[in-house]
Specification:
homodimer, four-stranded mixed β-sheet
């Protein structure tokens, strides 16, 4: 079984175009992606970043927003920066954690599309409920599950697993042998590595 | 005339594999690269970075070194990290500034190869002299020119031009219309943009 862990953050801009094409590129190579929502907050806080590096370093931020326009245009994705940026992604990450494995990629893509395609606030339960309903799921039930201790613990465990794997940004990819790739632009290289992996 | 400014830093790891393939990729697209050595030091200092972000953020640093191994293996380039890292790149940048336009790409590639292919210290005049001699140039004469005020001023002007163009890291590329691309992995996209540009 060729598999690749896909660590994504709902506050992360580059995770949006990546999430939209990740499964397609994985299928081309016969690789199964494990979609693992996690939080960058604890990682950034540990290096004394109080907000996104794109806010801390304005030149880098201006570049990122322009590049997002280019990337979304190339992938023909709608693009509307959310306000505020970064969004509080805790609720989205908990809901994506709470849904079943088979629903997670679709729910994640729907949340990303509302956030970066329509500029909606994903910290609001109604935004997340809209994504869940678009996936044909019972929104109230999953919002309840998202608030349960079991979900919170699972999300914390995923963030811990990301840190242990050396993850410092999003999106990131970790192969079964521990090989790490960082960035939307490394998706193909990570999948190629995973496809070539033999146990 | 399709042209692209190529801003590179001798202390920058990713500038090494980029410099090695930049002219080949440019020629494929009929684009002329303007090789512009500059210094990241003033840019990093302005955001209170006292050393490379790869030293400031250890997880990012570990990832970068592993990725350099992967990139150099893929390009079949020798790779030996220099000690200390980052190298003091002032002399190298001044010499690359002092040499004539037609010699600059070759001299830059030779310096990069000594620094990251052999792990030599490029702050030492003898390392730079070796690169100049490998390019068939008179080492003493160019080391003298590197120390002249005219060269120092030109290097400072290039760094100022980079800052004005929005550059915050290396390598970076700036098209005639001001479009900015950052990173070794953006070389092809930047060249494609420049190739499509009409005045």
């Amino acid at each position: 079984m060729r598999a690749l862990d896909f660590f994504f953050e709902f506050a992360s801009t580059y995770s949006y175009p990546c999430a939209m094409r990740a499964d397609i590129e994985a299928a081309k190579r016969g690789v199964t992606l494990n979609w693992r929502p996690f939080l960058l907050g604890p990682i950034f806080a540990a290096q004394n970043w109080t907000t996104s590096p794109f806010n801390l370093y304005p030149a880098k931020g201006r570049y990122m927003w322009r590049e997002m326009e280019r990337l979304c245009e190339a992938q023909r994705l709608p693009f509307a920066p959310p306000d505020p940026f970064p969004q509080n992604s805790l609720l989205a990450a908990r809901v994506a954690t709470a849904v079943e494995d088979e629903h997670r990629p679709q729910v994640a893509r729907l949340i990303y599309r509302l956030e970066f395609g329509e500029g909606l606030d994903i910290s609001k339960p109604e935004t997340i409920a809209r994504a869940l309903r678009s996936a044909g799921l019972d929104a109230e039930s999953y919002l309840e599950r998202a608030a349960q201790q079991e979900t919170k613990d699972k999300l914390r465990a995923t963030t811990d697993a990301a840190i242990k794997a050396g993850v410092f940004g999003a999106p990131s990819f970790v192969a079964p042998d521990g090989e790490l790739y960082w960035g939307n632009d490394r998706l193909e290289a990570a999948l190629d590595w995973a496809a070539a992996f033999r146990e």
